[in-house]
Design a protein that fits this description.
By secondary structure, the chain is an alpha/beta fold. It has 18 helices and 15 strands.
């Protein structure tokens, strides 16, 4: 057997085609996390046991030290495929597992999530799942790891829901669905969703949040009732929205990122007010009250913010949505100079030009960021070292690069995060801007 020769550089040995510390999991991981985030859903992994355990510890622990709810860790049902199943197939074992699961486990929705082995062998998993549709609500998500990453798995979960679960329903005026925020991959996902829901309800909308709500199955079944689908990402979730438009005629809008701070949040709410013909007076009254609070509370941090980072040179290493929202807020409201932005969620090529435009246009900073798309930790390290930075908003992987090599402050804001616990913490909305200011000021001023 031949060996792969490394390409020697001044800094490191690099192996072609090998990624050092990637920022996402496989498709199975994305679908599994989406199922866990939908309360009442019982995942059944049709895969090797290692797949489930790796996703639990990898996705959850690296997603800001979280557990995944009531179905996490070893309690997740799994067919535990071994070598023999790769030769002789595993349909009978899956059939027996579903049958016994129905008898002993409670779930509003059963989600069979199949991995690499069934796909390679050619098992007809869909046919086995169909045998149980008359008994329980059940879907099959085909997420062989080689089909894509965890962002793809998130979309595949919704593809299965749309194709196998949803039926047409009367549209409810002023009702919206939220898409594009991927559980655990977006480490502030719970707080982001909750804040967006509260903002939209504040201006008179009815919001179907789906993830982290107590009635997960009902939320999924209610998807066709929406007047509009909101996608909070330039690319992740867009495919889901397009499919819903084709199937149910539901229009959608793409919001480049979850809004952070008063300026972008108010702009977002005014856009929706125009799009959905909301009562202008109510919207403006809500915005005025929220802005007044946000700006008055910011005064409590004015002194330390001015002393700490009045015009900081900043580097951001994050998924697309997080990078866009923090770049805009830092540039337009905090006076930061965004020197470099590195996008780590590997968006498809057709979306990248639009992403760069969102990161470089509409900024009041005299500095426009240098934008890179990179998932390899070593390459990211080398890119950061080309700049003199005071603050780096990134993943935990960049913590020691920032502190030890660049003498910069670092805050973990993007997957993987394993040096802080994030439950419903968020930088979204009016209060979210204050939360980010708190975290930055604390890095500078405390503890003494």
């Amino acid at each position: 057997m031949g060996t792969v020769s490394p390409l020697r550089t001044k800094e490191a040995f690099t192996y072609p085609g090998v990624v050092d510390a990637p920022r996402h999991s496989c498709a199975l991981g994305g679908a599994y996390m989406a199922a866990l985030a939908t309360f009442g859903t019982l995942p059944i992994l049709h895969s090797g046991a290692g797949c489930g355990m790796a996703q639990n510890f990898g996705q959850n622990f690296s997603g800001a030290l979280n557990d995944a709810g009531t179905r996490e860790k070893a309690s997740t049902l799994c067919s535990y495929l071994v070598e023999g199943h790769a030769v002789f197939g595993s349909e009978d074992k899956l059939r027996a597992l579903i049958k016994s699961s129905i008898e002993v486990m409670r779930g509003d929705l059963f989600a069979v999530i199949s991995g690499c082995v069934p796909a390679l062998v050619g098992d007809d998993v869909a046919a086995v799942v169909n045998e149980f549709r008359s008994q329980i609500p059940i879907i099959h998500v085909n997420t062989a790891g080689f089909l894509g990453n965890s962002y793809k798995g998130y979309e595949q979960f919704f593809d299965a829901v749309i194709d196998q679960l949803l039926t047409s329903k009367p549209v409810q005026r002023k009702r919206v669905n939220l898409f594009g925020i991927v559980p655990f991959q977006h480490v502030f996902w719970k707080g982001n969703l909750q804040v967006i829901k509260e903002l939209l309800e504040g201006v008179g909308l009815s919001v179907n949040m789906i993830f982290s709500e107590n009635n997960g199955l009902q939320a999924l079944q209610s998807i066709p009732e929406a007047e509009l689908n909101l996608v909070f990402s330039p690319w992740s979730g867009v495919g889901v929205a397009k499919k819903l438009e084709e199937r149910f005629g539901t229009p959608y809008v793409v919001i480049s990122a979850v809004p952070v701070g008063p300026r972008d949040t108010s702009s977002f709410l005014r856009f929706l007010a125009r799009r959905l013909k909301l009562r202008r007076r109510r919207v403006e009254q809500f915005i005025a009250a929220q802005e007044q609070r946000a700006y008055s509370f910011a005064e409590y941090m004015a002194s330390i913010a001015t002393m700490a980072l009045p015009h900081a040179c900043v580097g951001i290493v994050a998924d697309t949505g997080t990078a866009i929202s923090l770049t805009r807020y830092g540039s337009n409201e905090l006076g930061w100079f965004p020197e470099i932005v590195i996008i780590t969620d590997n968006p498809p090529e057709e979306y990248r030009e639009d992403i760069v435009r969102n990161l470089t246009e509409g900024l009041e900073s005299a500095v426009k960021p240098e934008v890179h798309f990179e998932i390899d930790a070593q390459n990211i390290r080398l890119l950061l070292r080309e700049h003199t930075l005071q603050l780096i908003l990134a993943s935990s992987l960049e913590k020691y690069v920032a502190v030890d090599e660049l003498n910069a402050m670092q805050i973990s804001v993007a997957f993987p995060v394993y040096d802080r616990l994030i439950v419903d913490r968020t930088y979204a909305g009016y209060r979210g801007g204050l939360a980010l200011m708190e975290d930055v000021a604390y890095k500078y001023g405390g503890p003494l």
